[in-house]
Amino acid sequence: MTSLLILNGPNLNLLGQRQPEIYGRTTLQDIENQCLALAVELSIDIEFRQSNSEGELIDIIHKSRNTHDGMILNAGAYTHTSVALMDAISSAEIPTIELHLSNIHAREDFRHTSYIARVAVGVICGFGAYGYQMAIKAILNHVDK
Ligand code: CA2
Question: Residue 4's closest CA among 88, 96, 125?
Fold first, then answer.
């Protein structure tokens, strides 16, 4: 059975509780529930995780090497700063989709830079919580090729 890791970075645990004008009212728990429902429909396994710590995110990516077939990563603000996360994805050799709720290209200049995009199969941004459903289908299409 195909197994996917959906990994969420710093502050995404606050979704639905603050700044709803940018990130919407859907909580991370709502998103996890939606992803798990889609996983049942598609007969796949999903591990859904969140961490505020760069080191913990890197440890989770290292462990994904032999346990998951693909990864969907919303690295939050680490997207724009973390060479270490980029290196972890390269070393794990796991096909990865970079995901963002907001359209990072329509926001501040510092959000236009992504270290993750350099090692990702593709990038999805701007579609809110629905982007997670899009990313699941896109990564499955990629790993099934
Ligand atoms: O749009 C996205 O998904 C982001 O990854 C979200 C990050 C941001 O730094 C990226 O540039 C784009 C921020 C996540 C913070 O989430 C919050 C949610 C509610 C309240 C405050 C922060």
Answer: 96
Q: Class assignment of domain 3-144?
A: alpha beta
pLDDT digits over 17-64, tens only? Answer: 888 888 889 999 999 999 999 999 999 999 999 999 999 999 999 999
Ligand 1 probe mutation, 22, 23, 52, 103, most atoms within 8 A of CB = 23
Give phi and psi for 2, each to the nearest 5: -65, 135
- Residue boundaries of the structural domains of the chain: 3-144
| 58-97 residue pLDDT tens | 999 999 998 999 999 999 999 999 999 999 999 999 999 9
CA of 144 to the centre of ligand 1 (A): 30
Residue of 7, 8, 12 with the most ligand 1 atoms within 8 Å of its CB, for mutation: 12
Residues with a known catalytic role: 23, 100
